[in-house]
Design goal:
By secondary structure, the protein is of the alpha/beta class. 42% of the residues lie in helices and 16% in strands. The chain contains nine helices and eight strands. The protein has an eight-stranded parallel β-sheet. α5 links the parallel β4 and β5. The protein is globular and about 55 Å long. The structure holds pyridoxal-5'-phosphate. The site of pyridoxal-5'-phosphate (PLP) has 14 residues, from β8 and α9. Pyridoxal-5'-phosphate binds next to β8 and α9.
């Protein structure tokens, strides 16, 4: 049996996550790997899921809808990690077990109303713009606490678990690491307030080219695509504004 490139890449990823954790004096088991599966067909994702990588993320609702069925036999945990348009809220509630990209009260309220009608709750992360780029989604770090407070007050069916960010797109450690550090500090400030029913245990940060720095800065979840599945056909500007083309 030949080993698939995906399986080889997963083994190397696991090793690198473990090494980064140890360097930071952390336990490898404290870091979850989410596979960012945009543009990857279900048959390929299956190779990863069969090897125990059950945490998957999509940033386009149509792709999540399409892949949900074919992979449902493996009960993966689907997170929505892209910009969520209000008209996609019903699908988000239906197909995702966590929305990592809540960045405005209006969106939180729509999710809440939908959940209320179904007597359900949903895990969410608040997306923070740590890069200072105006083109990126996410609440500004200084406004994160206020947004968390308002969501906690008016949207009790959303369970805030932590924060998510996309760092500045760069290969320069001095440019990227501060973004991760801002997310960790922002979470710390929110945690200090001990807001009822708000958890700040999840820090979702780090991608293929920067996940080791993210782990060293405290990430509890990294989101990796390219490193496992290969380069995508589309530029990332297709998925979020301001990314490298
Ligand atoms: C695609 C994507 C990732 C993973 O990016 P790679 O560079 O392919 O590892 C992480 N987070 C989000 C929000 C994404 O859309």
């Amino acid at each position: 049996m030949t080993t698939s490139p995906v399986a080889t890449a997963l083994a190397s990823l696991t090793e690198r996550v473990g090494n980064a954790a140890k360097r930071a004096g952390r336990s490898p088991s404290d870091i979850r790997v989410l596979l960012a599966t945009k543009t990857v067909p279900a048959e390929i994702i299956r190779i990863a899921v069969e090897r125990g990588f059950r945490l998957l993320g999509e940033n386009r609702m149509q792709e999540l809808r399409d892949k949900h069925g074919p992979l449902s036999g493996f009960s993966p945990e689907w997170h929505f990690i892209g910009h969520l348009q209000s008209n996609k809220v019903p699908d988000a509630v239906r197909f995702a077990s966590c929305v990592e990209s809540v960045d405005r009260l209006e969106l939180a309220e729509r999710l809440h109303r939908r959940l209320e009608a179904q007597y359900r709750t949903l895990d969410v992360l608040v997306q923070v713009n740590t890069s200072g780029e105006t083109s990126k989604y996410g609440v500004m770090p200084n406004d994160a606490l206020a947004l968390v407070r308002r969501i906690a007050t008016s949207c009790p069916r959303l369970r805030i678990r932590g924060l998510m960010t996309l760092a500045r797109f760069s290969s320069d450690e001095m440019v990227v690491r501060p973004c991760f550090s801002i997310l960790r500090q922002t979470a710390g400030q929110i945690r200090e307030r001990a807001i009822e029913s708000v958890g700040m245990d999840v820090l979702s940060m780090g991608m293929s080219h920067d996940f080791e720095w993210a782990i060293e800065e405290g990430a509890t979840q990294v989101r990796v695509g390219t490193l496992v599945f290969g380069a995508r056909q589309f530029s990332d500007a297709h998925y979020w504004p301001g990314a490298a083309s």
